[in-house]
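FW: tagging you since you asked about this chain on Friday. Here's the raw sequence from the shared folder, copied in full. Didn't touch anything.
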Amino acid sequence: MAVLDLFRGICRPKISRFPPLVMCLLFLALLSMSSAAQGGLWVVKASTPNTGGFGEAVAGAGDYIYVIRGYSTGVCQFWKYSPAGNSWTTLLEWSPDSPVPRPKSGTSLAWDHGNYIYALLGSAYADSDRRYFHRYSITSNSWEGLTSTPHAQGAGDALAWSGYDSSFYAMIGSNVHGTGLAQYSPSANTWQMLPFNPTWSVTDDGASLVWTGGEYLYALRGEWEETTPHNDFARYHIPTRTWETKAAIPVGNGVGDGASLLWVGEYPDYIFALGGNDVLENPGYGFYRYSISSDSWTSLEQIPYPVGYYVGSRLGFAGGQVYYWQGAPSTWSGGGTKFCMFQFSTTLTTTITTTITTTTTTTSSTLTSHISTSIFASQRSTTTTTVTATMPTYTQTTTSTLFSGSISTTYTMTTTLFSTSTILSTTILGTSGTSTSATTELSKTGTTTLSETITSITTSGNTVYVNITVRHTFIEQFLEKIVSTVLQWFSELSRIFQNLFVTATVKETVVKIELLSADRGTCRIELNASPKPGYVGKPVNISGVMYGSWHCVRDGMVVGKPVTITADWGFSTIAVTDYYGRFSVTTNCPSTAGTYPITATFYEDQDLRGNSTSILYVVTSKIPTSITISYIANREFGGYLRRADTGAYLAYRPVKLTVTYLSGTTWRTDTFDLQTRQDGYYSLEFLFYWNQATIVFEGDETYASSQATITR
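HL: got it, structure written out here
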């Protein structure tokens, strides 16, 4: 009878009490564990040269982290962190406001994925109209001023780069200055105001904005009321300029100073977030992950040193790692200067299939083995696995626990089988060296011994040579089984043929393990159609972004893959994803109004498994409109007529204003025929006392009707 030592890769023969007989044994073990960013822990790195301040922000740019830090008095500082050297460099230290204006509350940084880091420089609540916007050149280590923001800045500022259209988006303002959304074009050095979230009036402490690789920006509103907790979270659709409320971030007592959002292409479905201090100004320890696909939040390992007190994003990404800066007062735990890296957990997915066939009772046997192993190595993990092997006469269970330290640390694994304990130490592949393990044990009679020596030699080219030496010093008929399982990405064990002897022997077996061809990766598709709704016979643009995880993926986006697009009114075509994973086609809506499914499908190929996404698209016979009404300066009714889908003004359209007013001592109602101007505006001077007014656009062959009412 043989016992499988899963991690040592040896089936060690035991002396059987029964005589040899014809055996047919099938052994199947399946080990599966979930993967990708399931958590981790914080690792403390070198602290910053100074504590936080009233104007601070963090940004990652390639292989470095950049931090700007101001204060109400004293010098301002701009630092760079090198992960390779675990060290900080002071790039600039200046006395405000030269050469750069002092960073104040609401300062925000964003990298353009090139040579520049852009900065909103914030504003104190007492500043009435501060609008500084600058950028930093990485190559020349210099700052320059740019066109001022189109709205007064404040504690609710947030800045994000969008690769979708190579521009920056900014929420600008505070609960004192009001808040607006704007787009900045680096090529033209110009700003454009955009529709702000209609359900948000302002942003404030803890506001944050992030692009997620496609057509969307995600935003935290922040602590816009100082006494009421708020966890508002929403997303902005860049092509249609529309907002959508999403699941609130699960921070107790609301978000606050230090709240931050971070998205990186390595984890395309996730946004990482800090909650900041709460509305009661308690230090904040919360760290979270938001799933874009499921619109849900998960709490991760708390940060070891709290953030808060000062406004500003604390998260950054560099060199493949997530970092956070404490940026707090010196009196807080950690001294306000702590800087930490988030180490993601290992995820291990292993499939082991072993088929052993013995066709004779003589000392000659054949062993056929196939082992497929997929391992994602990390610097620290704790993994517990259970394998059950079923044989004709008994069932055995193996439980193993794997602990690992840093990349250069030796792994130690313990496997327990029928009270026989074996320990193996082996070096992670990618590090040259030799590891040897030897065991000696008595036979069941206690009169003879069996010794085994395993030598693993790591060489270049992802090839491992395992020398297995088995010395038998007893004479008894047995079946020897050798299965070698080595920690290596996608490894396959070749067929082994062995001739066994009844006399004392020494055998040398060399097993060459080479890299398997890779399995296919996964993908997901975001799909959209605009305008919404569509209109009979009018153009509709169907677009989307394809995300995935494999070698054809750039920053989480799948490049150069065909996507089949079908619409239920008979339209079908194939679009190919571009450099940013985007695809887009334009066609005409059907001639009949209704609700139609639109589907985008990627069929699996040698790289990726297939996926499909569908949306329901509404086609109407007329374009919807919206109209507004106000009473201006106590003398004039006025408002705008627009398309509801694009916001475009409708010029020279007839509208009717109906007013109920007091004429002398009598209330009366009259209707006035008006027409919109070129900019879609209508007006009527009205000096009577009134209590209700309704403006109506009755529609035409192209546009649907709309109306609005005002009372007092």
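FW: The chain is about 0% helix and 50% strand.
HL: agreed, and Confidence is low (pLDDT under 50) at residues 1-38, 346-433, 456-518.
FW: great, closing this out.
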